[in-house]
Write a structure and sequence with these properties.
This protein is an alpha+beta fold. It contains two helices and three strands. The protein has a domain at 7-80. It has a three-stranded antiparallel sheet. A hairpin with a 2-residue loop joins strand 2 and strand 3. Helix 1 runs antiparallel to helix 2 (59-80). Residues 75-107 are annotated as: Disordered.
Length: 107
């Protein structure tokens, strides 16, 4: 049977506590090679659209993805903490990252 003739189910889950990289890496391990995931907004709420020929992720699988996501965010926050004597941030995951600075000098 070809993949194109397999009926696919679509499920939406909120992106709360889920890192895009983690769900992308883990999804096919849980749901098989035909499963796909992409960012999707439903009723104004960001989340992920999961397409799979079978059932969606179980509660345990979602919890595992959330735990792995937390580990990714914690390791990224630790890597960004460049000066150990800085005052600890209340929200280290929300530390602003400079993308571009305007020219501070005037001609």
């Amino acid at each position: 049977m070809s993949y194109s003739s397999t009926p696919m189910n679509k499920y939406w889950i909120p992106s709360l506590d889920i890192h895009k990289k983690v769900i992308t890496q883990e999804l096919q391990l849980y749901l098989g090679p035909q499963a796909t995931v992409r960012p999707f907004t439903r009723d104004g709420e960001d989340g992920f659209l999961i397409t799979t020929p079978g059932p969606c992720l179980t509660d345990e699988q979602i919890n595992d993805i959330c735990e792995k996501s937390r580990q990714v965010w914690e390791s990224k926050a630790a890597a960004r903490a460049t000066e150990p004597d800085e005052k600890p941030l209340k929200r280290p995951l929300h530390r602003p990252v400079v993308i571009e600075k305007g020219n501070s000098g005037r001609r």
